[in-house]
Q: What sequence folds into this?
């Protein structure tokens, strides 16, 4: 961004990068070591069939619970980012409502095994076929493809943390009351990410590739919303009675 | 917005542990 305030010092960027990395590590749900130790544990064929034979609404509910758990960690991540809690309450809610699932999708690459196209879910590594009964193959395939493409960038935890914060602090979300305040925070985060990538001697194209992910993430989230509303149209009582309240609040 | 997002608002209010 060309109109960046010249007052951001290197020290400030280093400090922000440290704060965001620490916040990420404290709230990442699963440590990298835990995930790596579990990669050999993929669901066996009979376990896959067990998920496939669950009633559609039961599997939807399970996934809604898992997404909600992951989102709660993202809320904690946001709260620890310098400046986030200084935004007005309206904007904190707007940013999390729009961005928390996007960060969950980003975080998915940490729990993704590219070797066999599986993701950590419900205690083991699961391939896309585990989610067949949900009836949204397109969304599942897109989520797996996104995780795979994120993995191919080989981001460090620090870089992933800064990219997650950059997404969460998107200043173009609708209904922000203090847009310019969010904009400044996002610009600072982008500079910290840029600085980190340079420090790690990553090529310029990595940042370009990451910026391109913004629209993919938005597409994934809108597809999730559409899929949920199609499900809700058929099973309104299940959603009302059995889905986590936070999930309904965010996506209802 | 706060009214429609009581749980999220509550999570934001809780102190970080």
A:
């Amino acid at each position: 961004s060309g109109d960046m305030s010249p007052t951001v010092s290197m020290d400030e960027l280093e400090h922000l990068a440290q704060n965001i990395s620490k916040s990420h590590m404290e709230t990442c749900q699963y440590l990298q070591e835990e995930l790596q130790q579990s990669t050999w544990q993929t669901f066996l064929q009979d376990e896959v069939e067990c998920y496939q034979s669950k009633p559609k609404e039961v599997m939807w509910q399970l996934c809604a619970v898992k997404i909600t758990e992951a989102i709660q960690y993202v809320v904690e991540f946001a709260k620890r980012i310098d400046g986030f809690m200084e935004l007005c309450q309206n904007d904190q809610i707007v940013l999390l409502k729009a961005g928390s699932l996007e960060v969950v999708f980003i975080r998915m690459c940490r729990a993704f095994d590219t070797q066999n196209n599986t993701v950590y879910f419900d205690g083991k590594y699961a391939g896309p076929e585990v989610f067949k009964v949900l009836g949204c193959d397109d969304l599942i395939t897109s989520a797996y493809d996104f995780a795979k493409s994120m993995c191919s960038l080989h981001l460090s935890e620090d870089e992933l943390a800064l990219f997650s914060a950059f997404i969460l602090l998107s200043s173009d979300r609708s209904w922000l009351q203090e847009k310019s305040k969010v904009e400044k925070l996002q610009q600072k985060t982008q500079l910290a990410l840029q600085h980190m990538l340079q420090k790690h001697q990553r090529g310029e194209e990595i940042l370009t590739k990451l910026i391109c992910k913004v629209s993919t993430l938005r597409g994934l989230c809108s597809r999730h919303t559409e899929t949920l509303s199609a499900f809700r149209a058929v099973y309104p009582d299940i959603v009302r009675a059995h889905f986590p309240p936070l999930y309904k609040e965010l996506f209802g | 917005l706060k009214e429609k997002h009581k749980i999220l608002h509550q999570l934001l209010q809780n102190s970080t542990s």
